[in-house]
Amino acid sequence: MDLHQEKINRIARQLQERTSTTPLTLKKKAVSHQVPRPHDKKYTDEKLDISDLDQIIAIDLEQRICIAEPGVTFSEVVKATLPQVLCLIP
Predict the structure, then answer these.
(1) CA gyration radius for the chain?
(2) Helical H runs in 1-90?
(3) What are the phi and psi torsion angles at 70 (to 5°)?
């Protein structure tokens, strides 16, 4: 089983085994660009850890697409796809 599928299975298992009905927020690697508000529930909610979803899954040269997990940074996508010349230059 590939690494991406293992990550998806882990997240699905977390959701299936969850017994709480409290709100759920995502735990990501990205830095928040917002100033924290006092008593903001997202800081006390139960977290679903998706911080390891940070890989490029595939680059399809024929269709000129890149499939990436949600935590991949824009600079990582550019670095991986720019040498492949995925865009058309008019």
Answers:
(1) 17
(2) 3-17, 74-81
(3) -65, -20
Tens digit of each residue's pLDDT (9 = 90 or more) over 30-63: 666 667 677 776 667 888 899 999 999 999 988 8
- The 10 Å Cβ neighbour count of residue 68 is 20
Q: What is d(CA 25, CA 52) in angstroms, rounded to the nearest whole number? A: 15
CA-to-CA separations, 82 to 8, 32, 79, 88, in angstroms, rounded: 28, 28, 6, 12
Count CB atoms within 10 A of the CB of residue 53. Answer: 19
Length of the chain counted residue by residue: 90
Res. 4 pLDDT band, cuts 50 70 90: very high
Helix (H) or strand (E) holding 58: strand 56-60
